[in-house]
Structure prediction request, 117 residues.
Amino acid sequence: MFEIEFYELPNGKKPVKTFLDSLEPNMRAKAVDNIAILAEFGNMLREPYVKNIGNGLFELRIRFAGDITRIFYFFAKGKLIILTNGFVKKTQKTPDREKQMAIKYKAEYERRLIKYG
Prediction:
């Protein structure tokens, strides 16, 4: 079993928590179910649940009643998974802005880990 942690900004906010709270209840429930599956299977989970998007980042792929959401994550030390940010998918291509935000959050997390151990 893997441990799931929400990335936390310096101001204490957690982008994935904010994202989940913004979802309609049925989609939120589906997202929480998929996060639980991710926690159970971790790096053994494959498509259609997850996709490797490069730079050590992955996306958790959530679909409910024709709606699609994605949550970016990466693996940290041991069996720790950090969820960085999420978005509602409206086009075929993942928005570059969302991917860049995930890359930034991962880099910040790694910097803090080196700095504070």
In short: The first helix runs from residue 15 to 22.
